[in-house]
Amino acid sequence: MTSKSRIFSEVDFEQEGKQQGFLRLPHSVHRSAYGWIAIPIVVIKNGPGPSVLLTAGNHGDEYEGQITLMKLCRELEPAAVRGRIIMLTAVNFPAAIAGLRTSPIDDLNLNRSFPGDPDGSPTEVIAHYVERELLPISDYAIDLHSGGSSLMYLPSALIARATDDELTGRQLDILKAFHAPLSFVMSPREDRTMLAAAQRTRVAAMGTELGGAGSTSVQSLAVAERGVRRVLKHVGSVPEMEVGQELIPTRLMEVGGSDYYVHSPDYGFWEPLAELGDEVRAGQTAAAVYCPETPWREPVMTQFDRDGTILCKRVPGAVHRGDCLFHLATDCP
Ligand code: ZN
After folding, report:
1. CA of 147 to the centre of ligand 1 (A)
2. How far is the CA of 284 from the centre of ligand 1 (A)?
3. What is the pLDDT of residues 60-116, one digit of tens each?
4. Would the pLDDT of 3 be above 90?
5. What does the pLDDT read at residue 171?
């Protein structure tokens, strides 16, 4: 196995000024023998300063971040920038143009594909390129997500707790600068995400959960745009960035282990018995699941396993056993 990426970049990350073009991911298929997948990229570099990596479209059905970066990459010019900003508006491009969480080419979820594989399928090649080529030349990274098609979040921003306090501290610093209405610290659950990749490369990284339901809103877009601008200003990347007025303090919360999550106990249609933003108690009934094939049967009930605030709720009414219905957050001590 070679460790070098097969992706060719049309942009030179060391060149001063503003460049736009594509990452060329070789993809030889029936309809195109010598073709490549064209992943759009914009790089702005102006002298010394921090190097910031901004990504959206890690999941293709999450639009808030993609729109935010499409606006930002047109607006920003080198004179306003210190250091380097790399923008990937649709990092898993095949998923983004299909409007899907996973790539229609290999069915893979980019955010479960790190550290990737340079000889793997397109999603694995992208993960490898981000972890081995882009993160090592970055000081900061923001990976913009939302709930996608199946989930809806209170507009929020997050970090994954690092194993050491120094990196967690640097991550907390940009999380607070982003200043979403709600900020949370995730207990480490996954080592295949971009945030995990950032920790392996010692990059101060944060993510977002801006809204979801496969849609966008005035509020979620405002949180995304203001947050990214505030971080770029805070780290000295765009010192004169316009960020609007100061907001109410962010509510700092945490999301812990499996007791924070409620999954469907059966197949059928689900009736939520609590709503996004509600404060709930351990043992409180969360949902009833009705089986459409046996309507005379009692619904199967499920409950919250701990106290907390509902941060995330499933969107579609149809469920399979094991689908996530809710997840909670609790205030940081
Ligand atoms: Zn996502």
Report:
1. 6
2. 28
3. 999 999 999 999 999 999 999 999 999 999 999 999 999 999 999 999 999 999 999
4. no
5. 97
C-alpha neighbours within 13 Å on the C-beta side of residue 24: 10
Dist. CA 235 → ligand 1 center (Å): 24
Q: pTM here?
A: 0.95
Same domain, 190 and 44: yes
Ligand 1 centre distance from Cα of residue 15 (Å): 31
Burial of residue 249 (CB within 10 Å: 0-12, 13-18, 19+) is exposed
Whether 150 contacts 75, CB under 8 Å:
no
Q: Which residue range(s) make up the domain with 53?
A: 8-255
Please tell me the distance between residue 60's alpha carbon and the centre of ligand 1 in angstroms. 8
Which whole number is the average pLDDT over 260-264? 98
pLDDT tens for 120-153 read 999 999 999 999 999 999 999 999 999 999 999 9
CA-to-CA distance for 96 and 102, rounded, in angstroms? 9
- Cα pseudo-dihedral 215, 331, 229, 169, rounded to 10: -130
> Any idea what the Cα angle at residue 19 is, between residues 60 and 93, rounded to 5°?
15
Same domain as 69, residue 132: yes
Residue 249 located in a structural domain: yes
